[in-house]
């Protein structure tokens, strides 16, 4: 009987954790959507002014900044860097598409 109660309690706790994870996932998706809305605007601005889609110096600053934030938050800095690199590659891809649509050649 006690095992049944323990299992029921575990399932209740698990459901609570999963509800929190679902909420966090939803927030992450909304935050990424807002981030990409802003980076697309940056891509348009760069294309309008003939600036290159990539900014390696800015990317390096962001990597250092996010690695420190990850350390402070007790998150693996390598994971944070991989995640940022993934996002930045997608942003650059968008910027290249925007530049091409605006007749800007790829220069960096």
Describe this structure in words.
This protein is mainly alpha-helical. 82% of the residues lie in helices and 0% in strands. The chain contains three helices and no strands. It has helices at residues 2-48, 56-72, 77-101. The model has no long low-confidence stretch (mean pLDDT 92). This is chorismate mutase.
Summed up:
The protein has 108 residues and is mainly α. The chain has helices spanning 2-48, 56-72, 77-101.
Distance between the termini: 67 Å
How many E-type strands?
0
Structural category is mainly alpha
- Report the principal-axis shape: elongated
The biggest beta sheet reads: none
Name the helix and strand elements from N-terminus to C-terminus, one letter apiece. Answer: HHH
How much beta, percentage-wise? under 5%
Q: In the CATH hierarchy, what is the superfamily? A: Chorismate mutase
Report Rg.
Answer: 21 Å
Q: Any descriptors?
A:
108 residues; mainly alpha; Chorismate Mutase Domain, subunit A; 3 helices
Question: What's the topology here?
Answer:
Elements: H1 2-48, H2 56-72, H3 77-101
């Amino acid at each position: 009987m006690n095992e049944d109660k323990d299992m029921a309690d575990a399932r209740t706790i698990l459901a609570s954790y999963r509800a929190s994870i679902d909420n966090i996932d939803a927030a992450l998706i909304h935050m990424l959507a807002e981030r990409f809305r802003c980076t697309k605007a940056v891509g348009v601005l760069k294309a309008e002014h003939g600036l290159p889609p990539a900014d390696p110096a800015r990317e390096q600053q962001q990597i250092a900044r996010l690695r420190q934030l990850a350390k402070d938050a007790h998150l693996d800095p390598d994971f944070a860097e991989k995640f940022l690199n993934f996002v930045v590659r997608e942003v650059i891809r968008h910027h290249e598409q925007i530049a091409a649509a605006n007749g800007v050649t790829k220069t960096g």
